[in-house]
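A.,

Following up on our hallway conversation. Structure tokens first:
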């Protein structure tokens, strides 16, 4: 149990930083960035897509780094990248510096999550792995909520948005120090090398995992990139300063995302196919609400809670599902699923930004909702396999 709590705490902290402010911060502060740097939605989409491209680079690099030097190396590389990137954003005075900072900050998310599948698989008993992976993946929730709370405090004061990014960079540096010690036992040790070929990951029975990952990546990237700006540009929430309104969606998103801690139990009770279908429907409703009710407290809060639960539970499902399908390739299989997620995340904001400029934000969010709806309708029990297919 010592290894369980040590790895769970280290992973929770790393994902809180890298999947919290480092990954979500650009969308959270997009209204401010649009004002300071004169960004259009199309340009904002390109910068967000660039950040997710950095995440893709981090994912691929993390697998190689894990194979060469164990899971501690990529985790530390990710937290260093987050610290540097968020520090650059805090000091940015030009668009190129901002874009570079976003790229580095979001690259950290690629480095710092998948390696924990390797560490957990090696050091935590089989029965406790689902709980450990759920805790690690749900670290994102409190990271997002804390980022939103920081933005809320800054929006209601005379402080600059740069103060928030400086605080994020300091928190990332602290997480780096904590993980440096917590992952000492897996430093320099990549673990046993599997003789299974990469081609085994492309078996037909694994295709639903990747297809659902791609859909998840497209829709959630669009939401986190543009939802806050949609609320701000619509006039904000009643009885609240406009600069504070966007933060509400991220605080609610993060706090309700703690439902991700129940993912393992929900899979047992509902079954994976049914749970996946329900989550995709929740995503579709969330996107429709932010499109049609951006100035309604009820609409915004329900949208944020649905999206938060969707993202956190799907994140945990991908970790559990890939580990069950490929127990001899825990890090590589999860990385492959995340590559599909990130591929969708690169394409989604870029396309959405230009659609928003051409047709408006509301039609763009409704169009995005149809992706989740179609995915939900396409899920069939006979196609969803979550037992070992390679070994």
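Then the amino acids I'd put at each of the 391 positions:
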């Amino acid at each position: 149990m010592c290894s369980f709590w040590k790895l769970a705490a280290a992973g929770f902290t790393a994902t809180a930083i890298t999947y919290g402010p480092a990954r979500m911060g650009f969308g959270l502060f997009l209204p401010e960035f649009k004002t300071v740097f004169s960004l259009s939605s199309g340009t904002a989409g390109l910068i967000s897509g660039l950040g997710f491209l950095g995440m893709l680079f981090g994912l691929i690099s993390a697998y190689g780094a894990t194979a060469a030097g164990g899971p501690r190396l990529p985790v530390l590389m990710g937290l260093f990248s987050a610290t540097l990137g968020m520090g650059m954003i805090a000091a940015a005075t030009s668009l190129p510096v901002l874009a570079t900072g976003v790229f580095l900050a979001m690259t950290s998310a690629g480095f710092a999550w998948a390696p924990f599948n390797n560490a957990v698989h090696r050091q935590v008993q089989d029965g406790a792995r689902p709980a450990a992976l759920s805790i690690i993946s749900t670290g994102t929730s409190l990271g997002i909520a804390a980022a939103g709370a920081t933005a809320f405090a800054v929006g209601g004061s005379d402080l600059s948005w740069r103060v928030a990014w400086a605080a994020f960079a300091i928190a990332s540096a602290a997480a780096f120090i904590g993980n440096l010690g917590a992952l000492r036992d897996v430093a320099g040790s990549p673990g046993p090398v599997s003789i299974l070929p990469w081609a085994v990951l492309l078996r037909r029975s694994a295709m639903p995992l990747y297809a659902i990952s791609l859909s998840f990546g497209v829709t959630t990237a669009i939401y986190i990139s543009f939802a806050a700006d949609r609320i701000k540009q619509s006039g904000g929430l009643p009885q609240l300063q406009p600069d504070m309104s966007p933060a509400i969606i991220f605080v609610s998103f993060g706090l309700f995302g703690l439902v991700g801690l129940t993912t393992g139990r929900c899979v047992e009770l509902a079954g994976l196919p049914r749970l996946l279908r329900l989550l995709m429907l929740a995503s579709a409703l969330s996107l429709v609400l932010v499109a049609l009710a951006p100035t309604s407290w009820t609409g915004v809060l329900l949208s944020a809670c649905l999206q938060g639960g969707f993202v956190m539970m799907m994140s945990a499902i991908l970790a559990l599902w890939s580990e069950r399908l490929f127990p001899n390739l825990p890090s590589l299989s999860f990385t492959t699923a995340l590559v599909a997620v990130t591929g969708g995340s690169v394409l989604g904001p870029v396309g959405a930004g230009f659609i928003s400029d051409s047709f408006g934000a509301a039609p763009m969010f409704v169009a995005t909702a149809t992706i989740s709806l179609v995915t939900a309708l396409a899920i069939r029990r006979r196609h969803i396999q979550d037992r070992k297919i390679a070994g």
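The two ends are 27 Å apart (CA to CA). Curious whether your intuition agrees with the design.

B.
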